[in-house]
Amino acid sequence: MDTNKTGAYLAMLRKAKGLTQEAAAEILGVSNKTVSKWETGGGFPEITVLPALAELYGVTADDILAGQTLRQESPPETAALKRRLMSRLRLRFDVCFAVSLALAVTARLGIPYVSLAALPLSVAMGWIGFVLAAHPVRYGGVEAEGAFWLNLLRKLLLSAALQWYAFVCLLRLGTPDWESVDLGTLTVPYTHDQWKPVIFCAGLLVLIAGFTLAGRRLAGPERGLLGPRLNRGQKALLFAAGVWLATFWALWVWVDGKFDAAIAPWIQRFGEDVMQDARFDEWWPQMKAQRDGEVLPWLRLRRAVLAAGGLTGLGLLAGGVKSILSRRKRTRSASGDDGEAGRPA
User: pTM to 2 decimals?
Assistant: First the structure.
């Protein structure tokens, strides 16, 4: 085995994929110097890295060790056949996507019996769309740019998110609160409905992670569908966002419940404007002191939780925007080879 031949072959494969040494090293989980050592003939890749390296470049481990492509390439499809296959795939997928969205909206409307039947049908149509999108990616029936497949995955994620939202709206958490029935719509609230936003956001994060993993597993990292993988800082940011959401919402529900319990007797006696009622200042100073002692601490704590949650949320949002911009920059840099990254000094 010739290390120089293998190194030149690896460099050629990397450039053909439009990857820099830094991007390839990040995908493989090795250092830039290691990739540079392989390509300059300083040594062979380790046996544990060979499968990932072969998958990244779309070759076999034997090809890498031999320094050349040993298998015979299949003849390329004609441009007309590609366009026809892509048009047929897009039409079928868009039909499934549109029907899935329509059924998900029907499920959200809460129509008796109809909504319960519409939700599983919407999920079934979304699954058919996923199979249509996954089949050519997995088996190579159609070759296309990464943007096309990324668009399909985004549509599937939108459909799944709407289905999850409709399902959360149909959930009944706790026991019926008959005292708060909406007589206009005849809607019966439940005692733990305030936790639905947390459940929805947690499920949405799971859906995003699931579709990301599915896209990488089906298309492989060499297609560059979803850009570079998340680094430790980005993963920590996502984890912090999830912890922040759960903590803030739990504190808000607790403080808001205490505030409502403290002010409810006063509202029942003096009306909704009890905190701005001028009669307390003019006629009932002792009652005002009692009202403020029972209600104001919870009102101030309520405002403090809201302010702290807003400030920390803005901080996480700024970190997320910065991370997205950095990710896009890395994706653009991966599309071209700077020729210098990762070279030994």
Answer: 0.49
